[in-house]
Amino acid sequence: MSEVASEAVALLVRDASEADMTAAQRIYEHYVLTSLATFEEVPPDLDDMLARRRHALDLGLPYLVAESGGEIVGFCYATSHRPRAAYRFTVEDSVYIADGRGGRGVGSALLRELIARCERGPWRQMLAVVGDSANAGSIALHRRFGFEPMCVLKAVGFKFGRWVDTPILQRALGAGDQ
After folding, report:
1. Using DSSP, how many helices (H) and how many strands (E) does the chain show?
2. What gap in Å lies between CA 111 and CA 109, rounded to an integer?
3. Biggest alpha carbon distance in the chain?
4. DSSP 8-class letter at 101
5. C-beta of residue 69 within 8 angstroms of C-beta of residue 14
6. Across the beta sheet with 148-159, what order do the strands follow?
């Protein structure tokens, strides 16, 4: 059995608890400080992360963690795409994996469960708003789960002294537009 397969077997994807948010905050902080995967420039503190989780849950949306060997190795969530009522059936996903854990099935396990849970709700479309056109890992992950590229917003972010694109991918949930 390969290392990838053995870790995937030991991976548990579950609802995130308040206690998990310290680990989620640390995982996200890494991306804020070192990557273009998010356009945030100042890492949110634990209270901010707790509020973000609460907001998703208040909307009835999932907020999940991946656990391996008792350690949180990733998290994901869905949130509303925009606040206007006409967008009420469209959600955005976010997936973050602990540094050094990429390529081991964590992102796939998280995104698979996030999609499944959103399909059980009233939502019909899911968007992936990817930080940076060069974020090949995130784009490939979403493509594996049926997301199709819709557009690239050119040079809409400015981080680490350079302009950054935002690819947008989309997939239908459940019956989609039917």
Report:
1. 5, 7
2. 6
3. 49
4. -
5. no
6. 11-15, 63-68, 71-80, 90-97, 125-129, 162-172, 148-159
User: What type of residue sits at position 60?
Assistant: G
Q: At residue 47, what are phi and psi to the nearest 5 degrees?
A: -60, -40
- Token couple for 159: 């981080």
Element (H, E) at 115: helix 106-119
Compute the residue count for the chain. 178
pLDDT tens-digit readout, 44-75? 999 999 999 999 999 999 999 999 999 999 99
Q: Where on the phi/psi map is residue 60: left (φ > 0), alpha (ψ -120 to 50), or beta?
A: left
What is the spatial distance between Cα 157 and Cα 128, in angstroms, rounded to a whole number?
16
What is the tens place of the pLDDT at every residue in 89-120? 999 999 999 999 888 899 999 999 999 999 99
